[in-house]
Amino acid sequence: MSNSLQQLPDKLRMDCINGEPGSQKKLYYGFYGFAMGICLRYSKDRDEAVGILNDGFLKVLTRLESFDPSKPFLPWLSRIMTNTAIDHYRSQLRQPITSDVTELEISGEDPEINSKLNYEDLIKIIQTLPPGYRAVFNLFAIDGFSHEEISEQLGISIGTSKSNLFKARQKLRIMLEEQNKITALNSASNGAIIINEQFKSQQDRHIFQAGT
């Protein structure tokens, strides 16, 4: 996103409201990356994310008159995109999970997961989670919602929210361990190739020197 569009310029906002040619496209592409980052977290793949993104921007463009220009634009945009993703989740949910696991106590973010994954890797792994786990993990661990708020947002019990978060973290930890093993094997393999090439190179130089 360009620095000029970190906040929504009032002229651009008014141009969009008044239907000035090209203004809505400018807003869309100006905040595309920020909004897509949110939609990708809540989606199983990029195609689904694009659908959520477009629905979200349609809401943004039709609600600009209600936006308070004295306040930051990005939190407002983020809230619309998140709510649109939640609406999409609800529309896709066929059999809501009703199990209650009130005895689980989940606290804070998982330092192991957060410290070993960069943002892009985390997004890819989150996308593999079942929809319910993915929604709760995003809302709690990344967007900072409480289990009480998640319960209201998704129409599930607080116990189910805690259960889904616990199971999401379990799956993420397993996938992280598998990814680390693959990375370690690749590193070891690359190291062996480098050592072997160095050894062959040394042999070649020795033979060449011996024959001179």
From TrEMBL:
Signal peptide start and end residues: none
Positions of the RNA polymerase sigma-70 region domain: 32-93
Residue ranges of domain RNA polymerase sigma factor 70 region 4 type in the record: 120-172
GO terms classed as biological process: DNA-templated transcription initiation
Keywords: Sigma factor, Transcription, Transcription regulation
Any Pfam family matching the protein: Sigma70_r2
Stored CDD domains: Sigma70_r4
Any GO molecular function: DNA binding
Keyword Transcription regulation attached: yes
Assigned protein family: Belongs to the sigma-70 factor family. ECF subfamily.
NCBIfam families: sigma70-ECF (TIGR02937)
Protein name: RNA polymerase sigma-70 factor, ECF subfamily
Organism the protein comes from: Daejeonella rubra
